[in-house]
């Protein structure tokens, strides 16, 4: 599991500290910069899931200028403005950069957290993804974004050891913890769409790279962290066919 990494452009120390405290309590990894030059340097060196931009930096609308540059450079990261600027002219200019939203200071904490969650969902939501609001997860080719309390957790798909059906939910057993999402095993398999996962039982989907041992006669798989998963006759032959190394 990885916390969502957030880039914060905010030049005022007191406001930055309060914002960082709120975000870190809600499972964000925050990197703060005080000017656009530093922001661009961080963006060159690190991957970010989302950006919060103040508009007025040292008396100039650096936040908007930065957003325009990111747009021209096709740096495709969801962002929102968090500012005290109530000017309609400033708002109209900011709107041209296609932010997710434009929030005014002093901000409502829940409104900000929800805006961040929706921005992540909207950015990653495609025809083959799942809504956070309805299913508590968004699935992308490399990550799952899972709603947990008031935060969104980022889970690397490669870290999933296996998936198990739990009534109306699926339990994701990962290297760093377990998660429940309201989704069928078949749907998860379709959305992940990876050859690295194999169904070994009507209730189990296994990350092939996490297999340590297979006992075909006992219909048993031993996975990393000593997890044991059933192997049914129904799926055994297909598994062997798709994974000739286990023949």
Task: Report on the architecture of this protein.
It is a single chain. The strands form three sheets. Strands 1, 2, 3, 4, 5, 6, 7 and 8 form an eight-stranded mixed β-sheet that branches. By secondary structure, the chain is an alpha+beta fold. It is elongated and about 75 Å long. The protein folds into two domains: 2-124, 3-Layer(aba) Sandwich (Rossmann fold); 132-246, OB fold (Dihydrolipoamide Acetyltransferase, E2P), CATH 2.40.50. The protein has eight helices and 16 strands. Pfam families: LytTR, Response_reg. Keywords: Phosphoprotein. The modification 4-aspartylphosphate is found at residue 54.
Helix content: 25-40%
End-to-end C-alpha gap? 33 Å
Large-scale geometry? elongated
CATH homologous group name of the largest domain: Response regulator
DSSP helical segment count: 8
Strand content: 25-35%
Secondary-structure-derived class: alpha+beta
Summarize the structure.
Helices cover 32% and strands 32% of the residues. It has eight helices and 16 strands.
List the helices and strands and how they pair.
Blueprint: E1 2-9, H1 13-25, E2 28-33, H2 36-45, E3 50-53, H3 62-72, E4 79-83, H4 88-95, E5 102-104, H5 109-124, H6 132-135, E6 137-139, E7 143-148, E8 151-156, E9 160-166, E10 169-174, E11 177-181, H7 185-192, E12 197-201, E13 204-207, E14 211-215, E15 220-223, E16 228-230, H8 233-242
Features:
OB fold (Dihydrolipoamide Acetyltransferase, E2P), Sig_transdc_resp-reg_receiver, DNA binding, 8-stranded mixed sheet, elongated, Rossmann fold, 8 helices, 2 domains, 247 residues, 5-stranded antiparallel sheet, alpha+beta, single chain
């Amino acid at each position: 599991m990885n916390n969502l990494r957030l880039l914060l452009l905010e030049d005022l120390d007191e406001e930055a500290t309060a914002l960082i405290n709120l975000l870190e309590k809600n499972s964000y990894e925050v990197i703060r910069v005080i000017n656009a030059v530093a922001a661009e340097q961080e963006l060159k060196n690190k991957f970010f899931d989302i950006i919060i931009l103040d508009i007025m930096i040292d008396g100039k609308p650096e936040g908007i200028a930065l957003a325009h540059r990111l747009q021209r450079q096709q740096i495709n990261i969801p962002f929102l403005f968090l500012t005290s600027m109530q000017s309609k002219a400033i708002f109209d200019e900011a709107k041209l950069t296609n932010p997710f939203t434009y929030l005014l200071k002093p901000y409502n904490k829940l409104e900000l957290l929800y805006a961040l969650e929706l921005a992540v969902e909207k950015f990653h939501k495609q025809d083959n993804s799942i809504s956070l609001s309805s299913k508590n997860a968004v699935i992308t080719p490399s990550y799952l974004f899972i709603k947990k309390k008031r935060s969104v957790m980022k889970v690397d798909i490669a870290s999933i050891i296996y998936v198990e059906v739990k009534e109306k939910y699926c339990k994701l057993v990962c290297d760093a913890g377990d998660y429940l999402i309201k989704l069928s095993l078949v749907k998860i398999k379709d959305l992940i769409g990876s050859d690295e996962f194999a169904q070994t039982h009507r209730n189990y989907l296994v990350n092939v790279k996490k297999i340590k041992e297979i006992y075909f006669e006992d219909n048993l798989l031993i996975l990393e962290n000593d997890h044991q998963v059933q192997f049914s006759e129904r799926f055994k032959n297909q598994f062997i066919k798709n994974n000739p190394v286990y023949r």
